[in-house]
Amino acid sequence: MHRDLLTVVIAAFNEAQALPALHPRIAAVLDELAVEVDGRVLYVDDGSSDGTWDVLLGIANGDARVSLLRLSRNFGKEAALTAGLDRVEEGAAMILDADGQDPPELIPRFVEKWREGHDDVHGTRSGREGESWLKKATAHAFYRVMQRLSKTPIPTDTGDFRLLSPRALAALRQLRERHRFMKGLFGWVGFRQVSIPYQREARLAGNSKFSFWRLWNFALEGITSFSTAPLRLATYLGVLTALLAFVYAVWIVFKALLWGDAVAGYPSMMAVILFLGGVQLVALGMIGEYLGRLYEESKQRPLYLVDSWRPALRVCSDGV
Ligand code: UDP
Ligand code: MG
């Protein structure tokens, strides 16, 4: 019987504690699915420094379905995922976090939707456990702002927990931009999308790798990669201040004609200069953000470098 191929792709950065607890859960789910789906697992070690690689080697030695990829340093989750997805040559891919926050037990539901003909099955968080209210609130706001700003549809409260069909995967592989805001890239690809609501669990072990500063930069990345609205905002801000300045100029001239022009007005002059200076700096900063990204893009560097690649021991498993 023909079975579809599914590779579970997991980016791991310093997850030595969480992985030993996670892998048996994935293995159990794949065993359960084995009748319909030929399941594989691909772990990408994103330059970990805590023995994650040794843990992964142990896992791969004990499970012939597991292949491993190690990057030359920490490139960030988005690049690590790209590296993993690039190695999925056949079949569909299922993206999962290494910390157990995306429960592997839901994979059969994703597979079911895929088999119904969907290309991008994504998990939408209906609740998040073990995360502070501040993180939840900022994440909530971020998704709403993104949706308003971007022309690309980006589903709200949806992370990287998703299944991509072979054709969605092939499409994604064509997008080689350096500043990779994966959520946006998935949305850009389109095809048949469907969401599965799920409860996001607390981490199995360790701490989140995304500090608030990193999340803030991530948000900037998303906005500048998928929207030019800030540039337009700069234009509007400029027009608005020019209008205000014009009205004010008319008022000054009018006042001078009516009541004469005694040299005064240091406070108002200072206020105007400082205000204009501020507006100009903000606008320049916005242009700078885009220019910087353009510069990065123009260098055409590879998205990641591979240190080692260990293919799965089991190559063809049909009929095993
Ligand atoms: N991750 C990665 N490279 C990084 C940071 C994180 O591969 O530079 C992985 C991490 O190991 C985990 C996933 O990305 O599997 C999500 O990270 P984390 O749980 O820290 O983020 P959060 O769930 O708090 O948003
Ligand atoms: Mg996490």
TrEMBL record:
The chain crosses the membrane at residues 233-254, 266-287. It is a multi-pass membrane protein. It comes from Luteimonas soli. The keyword Glycosyltransferase applies. The keyword Transmembrane applies. Keywords: Glycosyltransferase, Membrane, Transferase, Transmembrane, Transmembrane helix. The lineage of its organism: Bacteria, Pseudomonadati, Pseudomonadota, Gammaproteobacteria, Lysobacterales. One of its GO terms (molecular function) is glycosyltransferase activity. It comes from the Bacteria. Pfam families: Glycos_transf_2. SUPFAM superfamilies: Nucleotide-diphospho-sugar transferases (SSF53448). It is found in: Membrane. This is Glycosyltransferase family 2 protein. Signal peptide: none annotated. PANTHER family: PROPHAGE BACTOPRENOL GLUCOSYL TRANSFERASE HOMOLOG (PTHR48090:SF1), UNDECAPRENYL-PHOSPHATE 4-DEOXY-4-FORMAMIDO-L-ARABINOSE TRANSFERASE-RELATED (PTHR48090). Its EC number is 2.4.-.-. Residues 7-169 form the Glycosyltransferase 2-like domain. Its main location: membrane.
